[in-house]
Amino acid sequence: MALDFEELHRFVDSVLTANDGDHFNVLGLRPEYVERHRVGMSMPYSEALIGDPDTGVIHGGAITALLDTCCGFASATALDDLGMTPTIDLRIDYMRPATPGLTVYADAEVYRVTESVIFTRALAHHGDVDNAIASVVGNFFRMELELFADMRREFRAAQKLKNSALKSGGIDNE
What we know:
Helices cover 32% and strands 30% of the residues. It has helices at residues 5-17, 23-27, 60-76, 149-168, and strands at 30-35, 38-43, 50-52, 57-58, 87-94, 104-113, 117-125, 134-141. It starts with a helix and ends in a 6-residue tail after the last helix.
């Protein structure tokens, strides 16, 4: 089966917003685009993310989580169907602090796919990739798609239910 990128985009959005209070919600991560071998995400500035109260600079752990998540979903674009790709290794270089008050963007790409490992790289920035905040190189495990059969079935059933409720007017389209 060929991967449906629109479905993957909905899946990414669902994972990022499904559980109030989880780290994705605290970080405010949002998908910007999902394409073959590429994913972009954003993380709006928030006082909850400040690592240095004197300067208002976002904590490096929040930047790392953004980049890891973006690379993980980018690696999922290399699969043949919806699935997850756990992090094997992540190396991050911080080049400058994020500017207080500004949204941080991440752009990740897959640059090599093997039978068991997907290799990615990404940049965190404020809209100018030539003035990056951090760069990362990550390796992700390419697991058997059969391991995610239940997850795909449940996600697709929930999407079908949501779409039928939207068509019947039973749910407000946010």
